Fold these 2 entries.
Entry 1:
Amino acid sequence: MENLKRPWLLSLLVLIVLLSSMLILAFSLNHHPLQQESKQNVNVTEPVAISPEPGKAEFKSFMDYRTISSQTSDQSQLQRFSQTGEYGIRIYNYAYMIAVGSGWGFSVGDYVIILFDQASPIGCVVGDIKSDSDTDKLTHTKDKVNGSIIEFIVQTEKIPKKVQISGSFNSVPIFNHKILAIYAEEMPYD
């Protein structure tokens, strides 16, 4: 009879059970062989300052995740554990998925931080390595056509129309900043 006088107690218990269930589900979704394998080989790096051509560090291109053709590749395996998030960008373990040139020395599954000139840094997971034939011949760190340093991995039909038209995520205010540095860190949600 005493518990009926405290309805908030029942609500609190239900909330605790729901939160516990969500944590267990999140833990089980975020632990799989590819993640465990990459955790053992984390290569934390110092921030690498970028000195791109004027006007080029702002351009942030995109590629559709379905262009990853090999079903047995690390890239494809990573996509199986990813989902499409805000702005149509693929998300893995709470981080945006990107493709970068081989010159950065990152591997598929690496967690990297992108530092902007006038915005908060963003956490990203390397979901693909761009072909050397698609990047500059000197450093293999930027797209040879548009100078893009990072390429967001997306579900094309879900990205904003402005991005589809311009070919760059600069039309999204949170990404409309110059990239100052990029570096690898340990995945924060392991």
Entry 2:
Amino acid sequence: MSKIQHGAGGSFFTPTLKDRVKRWALIIGVPAVVLLVLFLMLWNVFFHYVKPGYMLIITAKNGTPLDVNRILARPGEQGIQEEVLGEGWHFVMPIVYTAEVKPNFQVPAGKVGIVTALGGVTPPQGRVLTESPGEKGIRPGRPDAALVSAQSLWLHRRTGRCHRDHARLRRLAAAAARRG
């Protein structure tokens, strides 16, 4: 018997059920697999996972330029954003932002983290420790630069208005950083 059959409908070829299932599997299956692969590739471009103990630093590619005295950008400004993102999944538009995962800085018990603010206005003469977020100088409470003992910082906080103590505090911070 030949494959060409003349049925009641007058068609030359009437596919069997098996042939129809194969055709629909190809019509639906191939695009579904292609879409799944494309989705998985784009997922890694748009979504970033931050493990516990790490943070996601966002840098805006576009926006208004920063003021002269500022280092970190607010939303709508170009540059490294002030707010970092914690652990978990985060959506980041790659055309507008870049993302970088960095480890969190851990301050052990008995130590105090010292940060020297690079941006902001210069504090009044003789003052070493900053009192507001918009000032340059050593800012207690935001650990990412160096560690010193809590007792050393207390002594300097009490007498921190003199330039000589500022130099001593920097030497202590540098020594603590060398010790690791």
